[in-house]
Amino acid sequence: MANQGCLGFLFNLFGIAGPAAPNSLPYRTRESLLTPGEQPFYPVLRLAVGSSYQICPKVRLADLFAVKPYNQAYQNKLLPMHIDFLLCDPVTLRPVAGVELDDRSHERNDAQRRDRFKDNLFESAGLPLIRIPNRRSYDPHEIRETLLQRIGHRVTYEAVAPRQKATSGPVAPTPIVGGRKPLK
Fold this sequence. Notes:
Blueprint: H1 5-13, H2 41-49, E1 54-60, H3 61-64, H4 72-78, E2 82-88, E3 95-102, H5 109-125, E4 129-133, H6 140-151, E5 156-157, E6 181-182
Parallel strand pairs: 3-4
Antiparallel strand pairs: 1-2, 2-3, 5-6
Helix pairs in contact: 2-6
């Protein structure tokens, strides 16, 4: 046992948690990577994309985009920003499209400036950015159609019951019925 001093001895004697160790840090694990608004959307997005894309949540823009030629001011602008969801090729993890879930906070002036910057950034890089309004429930078919319109290429999926609405509860993976079917 390390030398803990008189106060540490008393804390231990009475089963009281003493002050944090000098090298401990004030961090804790978050309950989820997703915000409460993003949590009900994620399983619906999983249903909508099936096995077509890997979904990466909370990707920093500085990890997604390279500044060419390198300029520290442009790089610094990317550092505090992220994209809600990034759809990637499931084998190579090549980025295919960004998905932003827009809630009421996007009505603020500062958020609108960030949104315009993100829109311009994705457009100049040739990467689609799909904005989905935040709702209480989502329709996987509607999300899939939006993705097809914006991405314009393959989206295969596991069968989903017609017009099934997903709510904020957990969504179990839908079993594959008759194999994977590409959308027309």
